[in-house]
Model the fold of this input.
Amino acid sequence: MMLDRVLKDNITIMEKIETWEESIKIAAFPLLKKNKIRESYIRAMINDIKKMGFYIVITDKIAMPHSRPENGVEETSMSLLKLDNPVKYGEQEIYLIFILAARDKEEHIGILKDLSLFLDRDDKIEKILNAGTTTEIEEIIKNGR
Amino acid sequence: MLRILTVCGNGIGSSLMLAMKIEELCREEGINNVSVESSDLNGALSKEADVIITVKEIAEQFPKNKKIIVTRSYTNKKKIKEDILESMKKYYKG
Done:
């Protein structure tokens, strides 16, 4: 499975965050640190939401902020922030924030397929929501789908 | 042939996941002869499609004359099925 490899060492857990903007910055930080994305990509993800609304809420409790490749993606990658308490994306309470960075329109399709299969499993989502450590989350995803 | 267009803010993430789920759903329901394409909001305005499927936030930004089915989720197959299957069958002519 591609998803576990791509998320490895890119997972953050936090108890609480006040704003959705902050949640995106923190979720994306591992990718920024490894130069997989540039600062401009984080700004672009936030601006896209301000312009077009919270369309990146992909299902209950879960958001997948992303922007276009040309806005600062160096390498196709993904990171995850799990919150113990929800942050509001508009009206919706979000616990899991998957940052998607796609270098072009093709390369990330495998990752999205894996994520889409994974998110179809309510029991797996529940396990991640209850996980206490990033290693635990990695294991759930690895044994997932 | 039913041409479906899934739409999200920039056409490479959420709309692509939704397109995958719709293809899966159509296979399971024996709905053949369907094409599913994903697009960003701007591109969608100029694309030919029989029906657009997207979430509420995006649907509100389309002109009123477009045929749109709204779904609550881009990834949860059960919810997508509940939200779109009946309406999709109406547009589907075999």
Remarks:
- Chain B has a mean pLDDT of 92.
